[in-house]
Design goal:
single chain; 191 residues; mainly beta; UDP N-Acetylglucosamine Acyltransferase, domain 1
Length: 191
Amino acid sequence: MFDARRDIRGSNRDKFLKQITMILTYGDRRPSIAPTAFIAAGVQIIGGVEIGDKASVLFNSVLRGDINDVRLGVCSNIQDNSTLHVADEWPCIVGDFVTVGHGVNLHGCRVEDEVVVGMGAIIMNGVVVGYQSIVGAGALIPPDTKIPPRSLVVGVPAKVVRQLPESEAAGNKYWAEKYVKVTRKYLGITP
């Protein structure tokens, strides 16, 4: 459970937390936010949401774990105006070192480690996006689609257009690491 008293000393964390629109319990579902996570102003976190160490949720995003769980892994980031939600039979699981671009909708899906999801993408119930994949901006991945590891996925409906060489896929982690540095600056911490 989030506890504002567990402040990062010398940081601006309290300033940002006072501007949060909402962190709510839903029935017996309670948010759990790592003390090293960054939560920007306007973010709404509801119910069974778990946010890992050094993860970030940026301005005006919504993570709603009302009827199932939402999990955001270590050093992953959810950029501005994105929505993560669930279905009865599908939680929304985002792995470690994942970058989710602006205005993305993740619904009842699993995004594995070191994936980049481009701006405006929609990933629907039952989808699994494999390790080190890239989902192009504006892509729509239909329900129950399984994306193999190291895939480049684009289009409406989205299709795998090629496999990513290991050297290219390994670059995905860079973006997540960059956002850890960016959010540390918001907190007044030099990474």
